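seq:
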Amino acid sequence: MHQNSKLKPPQLKKPSPNPESGLDGTDVGPSKSELKRLMIARQKLAETLSTFGSESLKSIPLDDAIRDAIAETPNIRSFEAVRRHKQYLGKLMRFLDQEELDAIHRRLDAIQGVSKAETAKLHFLESYRERLLTDDDALTKLIEKFPELDIQNLRSLIRNARKEKELKKPPKAYREIFQLLKELGL
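struct:
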């Protein structure tokens, strides 16, 4: 380090009012870090899309090249090849504009929302089935709610399911109770 550099005060740059504008006020666009974050987000979106089946992918508005590349993802076995393929998917996703990405996100949210609602419904039915097996009052409430229900059949299914559980047999009646509840539309 030269002695002269110690004597000179450091040159401070004036902060620009807009972080995306240069010193002279011209627009220089997003920073390199911001671009990288956007590319990583698009790559993660492609990875998320690659977890869906072909039927779900058909409903998502995607370019054919991207759809084909995503459909090929399950066929790749090597770890390094999977990593390279994910980068390739991210590269393909870079060519999409913001409107297309927004449409993909909306459709993705709709698909995931439906599956979450369906999962919640199935969990409710499973817990109701458990209540039927453990509590006779739950059966009474179900009969009150659905008077057209075949009571004798349901009671025998519950009795058989309890025996199956006790004797550690395959849960045939247990599954039938679940199907019955599902048909009722609880």
